[in-house]
Amino acid sequence: MVLALVAAYFLCFAVLCLFGLHRAHLVIRALVHRAAMRGMSHTIELPPDELPFVTIQLPMYNEATVAARLIAATGEMDYPRDRFEIQVLDDSSDETCTIAEAAVSALQAEGVDVRYLRRPNRVGYKAGALDYGLRTAKGELVAIFDADFVPQPSFLRSVVGNFRDPRVAVVQTRWDHMNRGLNLLTSVQALMLDGHHLVENRVRSAAGFLWNFSGTGGVWRRRAIDDAGGWQHDTITEDLDLSYRAQLRGWRFVYRADVLTPSELPEDMSAFRAQQFRWAKGTVQTARKTIGRVLRSELTWPQKLEAFFHLTPHFAYPLIVGLTVLLLPTVTFMPASSLEDMVFVDLPITVATTGSLALFYGLANVAQGRSLWSALVRLPVLVALNAGLAPNQSRAVWSGLRSMAGEFVRTPKKGNLAGRYWQAAQLPWIEMVLSAVSLTTVVAAFQHGHFFAGPFAALFAAGYGYVAYLVIAEQSARRRAERVSIPVSPPAETVSTMRAA
Questions:
Q1: What was the pLDDT predicted at 229?
Q2: What is the topology classification, in CATH, of domain 35-267+281-286?
C-alpha cells in the first residue's frame, strides 16, 4: 500500500513536471521567435477608400453595471461612420434592457449606425446571440466585445490593415486590466492573463502553432466564420471551438500585443471561480470535440503536440488535488535519507517546476515593460492561488468530460455600481479540508527531513485557506445584505453620467 501511494504521488508529480517543462519550452520559443513577434506589432495603415465595413457585436446578458459604458465607448470609434455598424445583442432579463436601449438611442441621436437586437429565446447563449446577429450583419469584418471591456477609439484603425492578407481570419488584441491593482486577487489574475497573452499567444502566433481567439477584444473575417461552420454551442467555449475549426481549414490568426483593449477583472473570489470553472469546462469539452481531428490532420507533429498542451492544461488541477492528498503519506513513509538525496533529487525537481513558472511569468512582465521582480514577488501567491482553485477546476474538468454544452454562466461585473450582481457559491468544504491536510503535511515534512516539500505544502495550505476564506466572507456579506434589504437595483443615473464614467 505504501509503495502504491508513493508511486501514485510520483506519477502525479511527473505529469505536472511535463506541464512545467512545456512552459519552459514556450519561453525558449519566445527567444527563438523574438524577431517574428516584434514584426507582428505594427499597424498597417489603409487609405480611407480601402477601409473595410465592420460590424461590431456587443453580446450581453444582465449587464446593468457596464452596458452603457461599453455601448458609449464603442460609439466613439475613430472610424468613418459610414464604414461600421454596432449590434447590441441583448439577452437580458433585468433592467439592462432599459439601460442598453437608452444608450443605443443616445448614439442613434448622434448619427451612429447602432441597433438594439433581442432574440425570442436564449438558445445557445453567447454563441447563439453572435449567430443571430450575423444573420443581419453588413460587415465583411466582425469585431466582438464582451460587456466588461472598453474598446479604445483607435481599435478598428489599428487592426483592419492586417486583413489585407486574404488568409487572415482573426486579429486578436491584448487584454489590458483597468482594475489590475485593486487587490491581491486582481493583481495575480492580471499576471496569469499576461502570461497567456504575452507568452502563449505571441509565441504560438509567431511559430505557426494553433491558438485561439479569446472571445472578445478581437476581429473575425465573416467569410472565415462561415467557412469553419459558424458559431456552434455544443461547448461553452465557443471561441476556442471556432478557432480550431477555422485553423484546421487553413485560416491564419494574427496576434497584436501592441494593441491594448482594457477590461475589468473579477474582483471577488466567487466571481473569479465561476469564470475559471466555465473556461476549464469549455476547454475540456473542446478538447473532446477537437483533439481527434487535430491528430488526424496534416499539421506537423510539433503543431499537434503544441495543440495537445493548449487543449489540456486544466487536467493539471486534478493532479494538484491528488498531489496534495498523496504528499502527506509520501513524506511520512519515505523519510529523507541524506542531504545528498535532497540536493540531487528534491532540489532539481523543485527548480524544474517553479523555475519554469518564474521564467514564464517573468518574461510576460518584462515584455510589457514591467520589472522582473514584480512578477517574482507575486509568484508564490500565484502558485498558492492555483492550488486553491484546484478543487473547483477539478469539478469543471469532470463536468466537461461527462457532458457537452451546458449553461453559460456569466461572470459578475462590478462596473460603476459595486455590489449589483453576486455569484452564488457553495461553502468550500473541500478547500478547508485540503488546507488542514496541507498544514499537517508541513509538520510531517520537517519532522522527516523533507525540507523542500515543507514550503510547497505551506503554499498549498495558504492557497486552499485563502480561497475558502474569501468565499465564506463574500457569501456571508451577501446574506447580511439580503437580511437588511440593501437595494441591488442601480441608482437612477442618466446615460450621460454613465458614459462619462
A1: 97
A2: Spore Coat Polysaccharide Biosynthesis Protein SpsA; Chain A (3.90.550)
